[in-house]
Specification:
By secondary structure, this protein is α+β, with helices and mostly antiparallel strands. The protein has two domains: 274 residues, outer membrane lipoprotein receptor (LolB), chain A; 102 residues, TATA-Binding Protein. The chain has eleven helices and 18 strands. β10 and β11 form a beta hairpin.
Length: 407
């Protein structure tokens, strides 16, 4: 248990630093004057403070707002949800499946309640009017409950003990200073990190860690992380696009308490009359999904196998055997691959889908020929008419330039 706790104390800060380490250069800067008035601190010292955080317990209310700049997908979403519900009734994915429910957070505004008591007990509740969806981890058990459908999902064997925890502990730097040094060592000259003043988040004093690309062509304007001045715990995360307007992601606590939550917070008993779906069957396969061998048989029957399903080529691999390539570096990295098939025509899609795709796409031309750029405020993708794909958190022009350079 001691080893597990040692690893878990770094979970949040290591996730933050790990993302940064892949693409950033550290620029020490002193915190500007602001409200609240806190002691000056450098960016490196703030990273060390995050890494030194030993937050094991907390509870509070968390708000997440996401704006990818996409057109309204309400009609499409309703259709997909209806299809998912009917699929669950026929033995498909249940409405309580965590991976399905948490995808709701990628659009709109959502209020969540969170609680944690060490690595073995956590609870997340998504509030939707009078309806609630709860995901509870308590020891070896994971429970998910959807009050709207009165359905329960249960899975055993979710303990954080074991080789995974031991591996993570071995891979992590031993001290906060070592973690900061690793960030510096892995970083290049693509980004500046500064302390951009102070803020008050959920009634607590915080420093603002600001990450900004130095490279042109990125769709990312900045990433801001509000860090609790006392505990070093990240309290808020904001991702802004070069397009301006509302943040792409604005997620943070509106209320937080670092005291130990009551043990009863993590107790769960299926309500009377609720439908309960067990996560694994007697063969160790997901109960609500088909086993891989059964999926393969279905694909062979309906499409002639995976190659038939994708028109002779798997995504990420071209017909001549070439796989995915990565070009560029830092914030302007672009992944490219050849599907080996001509791009599908949007006018061949159903009417409601066609309108959605048209609103996402811009026709472009260049030395590479012609194609369509499918865009959001952060991630854009160019698909050429001859089936080549370029995707990254870069501008439309950066994708066109990459396609032209490949010719």
């Amino acid at each position: 248990m001691a080893e597990t706790r040692k690893a878990s104390r770094y979970v949040v800060p290591f996730a933050v630093a790990g993302v940064a380490a892949a693409t950033i250069g550290l620029v020490p800067a002193l915190a500007a004057s602001g409200d609240p008035d806190l002691p000056e601190i450098t960016a490196q010292q703030l990273i060390e403070k995050i890494a030194a955080s030993d937050t094991q317990t907390l509870s509070g209310t968390f708000k997440v707002t996401t704006d990818l700049g996409l057109p309204s997908v309400a009609g499409l979403a309703d259709s997909f949800m209806d299809g998912a519900a009917s699929g669950a009734a026929g033995g498909g994915t249940p409405s309580t499946d965590p991976t399905e429910m948490l995808t709701k957070l990628i659009s709109g505004s959502h209020t969540l309640r969170v609680a944690a008591d060490g690595p073995d007990r956590q609870k997340l509740t998504i509030l939707d009017g009078s309806d609630e969806y709860s995901l509870i981890h308590n020891g070896d058990d994971v429970w998910a409950y959807d009050s709207k459908s009165n359905e329960v999902f249960h899975e055993k064997g979710a303990s954080s003990e074991g080789p995974a925890g031991e591996k993570a502990d071995k891979e992590l730097p031993g001290t906060p200073k070592e973690l900061a040094d690793e960030v510096l060592k892995a970083a290049g000259d693509t980004t500046s990190i500064t302390v951009g003043g102070t803020a008050t988040v959920a009634g607590r004093d915080a420093y603002q860690l600001v990450i900004k690309p130095k490279q042109s062509g990125s769709t990312v304007d900045s990433v801001k992380i509000a860090v609790d001045a006392k505990t070093g715990t990240p309290l808020k995360f904001t991702l802004a696009s070069v397009e301006g307007g509302k943040p792409v992601i604005d997620a943070g606590f509106t209320k937080v308490d670092f005291g130990k939550p009551a043990a009863s917070t993590f107790d769960f008993k299926a309500p009377k009359g609720a439908k309960v779906t067990e996560g694994l069957n007697e063969d160790g396969e997901p109960e609500h999904r088909k086993a891989p061998k059964d999926v393969e048989k279905d694909l062979e029957k309906e499409f002639g196998g995976l190659d038939g399903l994708f028109g002779g080529a798997m995504p990420g691999a071209s017909s001549d055997g070439q796989g995915m390539n990565v070009i560029g570096e830092g914030w302007t990295t672009i992944a490219t691959y050849d599907t080996g098939a001509k791009a599908p025509k949007t006018d061949e899609a159903p009417k409601e889908v066609q309108g959605f795709l048209d609103s996402l796409g811009d026709e472009v031309n260049g030395k590479f020929g012609s194609g369509t750029v499918f865009k959001t405020k952060i991630v854009n993708a160019l698909m050429t008419d001859d089936g080549k794909v370029y995707v990254g958190a870069v501008t439309k022009q950066a994708l066109v330039d990459a396609a032209n350079a490949a010719k």
